[in-house]
Write a structure and sequence with these properties.
With 263 residues, the protein is an alpha+beta fold. It contains four helices and 14 strands. Strand 13 and strand 14 form a beta hairpin. It is elongated, with a radius of gyration of 27 Å.
Length: 263
């Protein structure tokens, strides 16, 4: 985990934690310590002491990508404890009644569905953002496809409110908003503006910058552009039809006049 509690019950990020100090797990209340502070391979994180039992049995991502996304949100919205009927879990982000889960490491379809159904049963909207680096490619026939056929979404029975993929091409920050899940092809919403991390943050309330578009606004502007383009095409087609009709009429008129002048 990247967020814990201090002894006076205040939330603290791993960025501000001091190795050697003692912190508490926000779920079970047991002590946790700073781990991997000097590691080059594992992200620094909070961990329970050995043989500690905790109600949260889901494994959580410890990648830099995961941490960087969480740290874009206010600390009061990170790793929030959600409970129902004695079952307790940590949402990566809980903000404005929306749970956002960041997924970098592999996850089974069963666990994916389990998280969806748990949070939806508590009345929350559920949004997923996957790190899709090296998992997709452009196919000449099909467009954007999975490099390997995926069964991740085959167990999904509970609808989610947003599915996004990031880093599907090298050196790209764009996010894809997936419109349809498939084991081979990747169907996504095409927009007039790229969906970037700042648009994602604006959509879900992490930033309030008026100069940044929300994803919904990008969709609305895309719809406006499509409608305007369709009108332009209709007008062009109507002009072409009128021009063709006028040309036919003029040709018929010339033929009629020619016949009148013929002896």
């Amino acid at each position: 985990m990247f967020t814990a509690l201090t002894k006076d019950n205040k939330r603290i990020s791993i960025e501000d934690a001091i190795p050697g100090d003692e912190y508490l797990c926000p779920i079970c209340g047991n002590p946790v310590v700073v781990k991997a502070a000097k590691s080059d391979n594992v992200r620094t994180h909070f961990a329970h002491k050995r043989n500690t039992l905790c109600l949260d049995d889901w494994k959580h991502d410890m990648s830099d990508w995961h941490f960087e996304w969480q740290s874009k949100f206010p600390i009061e919205s990170r790793e929030i404890v959600v409970e129902k009927d004695g079952v307790v879990h940590r949402a990566d982000i809980l903000i404005n009644d929306t749970v956002i889960e960041f997924q970098h490491s592999p996850i089974s379809g069963e666990e994916f569905e389990a998280r969806n159904s748990f949070y939806k049963s508590r009345g929350y909207r559920v949004v997923w953002l996957f790190d899709a680096a090296d998992k997709m490619k452009i196919d000449d026939c099909f467009g954007l496809v999975w490099k390997r056929k995926t069964t991740l979404f085959s167990s999904m029975k509970t609808p989610i409110d947003g599915l996004f993929m990031q880093n599907y091409l090298p050196e790209k920050e764009d996010l894809l908003c997936i419109s349809q899940v498939d084991s081979k092809e990747v169907f996504y919403h095409r927009t007039v503006y790229p969906i970037l991390p700042e648009n994602f943050l604006k959509e879900f309330g992490a930033i309030q910058n008026e100069n940044v578009l929300s994803i919904q606004t990008i969709f609305e502007k895309t719809k406006e552009w499509v409608n305007a383009e369709n009108r332009r095409k209709r007008e062009l087609r109507d002009q072409q039809l009128r021009a063709a009709a006028n040309a036919t009429f003029n040709q018929m008129l010339r033929g009629k006049n020619n016949r009148r002048g013929h002896f």
